[in-house]
Specification:
Blueprint (H helix, E strand, L loop, with lengths): L5 E5 L5 H14 L9 H14 L1 E7 L2 E11 L8 E9 L8 H15 L3 E3 L8 H8 L31
Parallel strand pairs: 4-5
Antiparallel strand pairs: 1-2, 2-3, 3-4
Helix pairs in contact: 1-2
Length: about 170
């Protein structure tokens, strides 16, 4: 019987299909309607991250069970580059084995090597435990989250004028 050992390593172009499969499970886990996935755009996006940023995978004897990426990001108002952790996802059966932490550490090492500050926006729907867990990790500060408003949602009072409190 082979030993089950999760190894975090740099992603390779041959991993793209399996990375997308893992991420699809994460998108399916969302409790809010978020942007639908276009497979071709997703493949191109993942390949561009491998080329221009950093993408780590959690590999269990050849099976991708998690992944995280860092993309270069510069706010339009600044000359400073950041590393943005665009996604971090681990399949549920492998979350309790230190896999999440190992992927985050890989992202941190990449950022430190490039002397970049990391940002990490959390999109977890109604699962605040993910945010709470991240807040407990050493070296990270909570600076706010994301709000989502789907198109076509009407306000109760459509007569709100500028200056009125929302």
């Amino acid at each position: 019987m082979s030993e089950k050992k999760i190894r975090v390593r740099n992603a390779e172009p041959r991993d793209v299909v399996n990375i997308i499969k893992v991420l699809q499970k994460g998108w399916d886990e969302q409790t809010v309607e978020y942007a639908p996935v276009d497979d071709l755009r997703a493949y191109r996006w993942i390949l561009s991250i491998i080329e221009e940023g950093f993408l780590a995978v959690a590999d269990l004897n050849g099976r991708i069970v998690g992944c995280a990426c860092v993309s270069p990001y510069r706010p339009p108002w600044s000359q400073t580059w950041f590393g943005d952790v665009e996604f971090l996802y681990v399949l549920p059966p492998f979350r309790g084995e230190g896999t999440v932490e190992a992927l985050i550490k890989a992202c941190e090492r990449f950022a430190d090597l490039h002397e970049a500050t990391l940002t990490f926006g959390i999109t977890t729907g109604d699962r605040p435990e993910v945010k709470d867990r991240m807040m407990k990790m050493a070296g990270w500060e909570y600076t706010g989250g994301n709000f989502l408003r789907s198109h076509g949602q009407q306000q109760e009072d459509n007569d709100i004028e500028a200056g009125d409190e929302a």
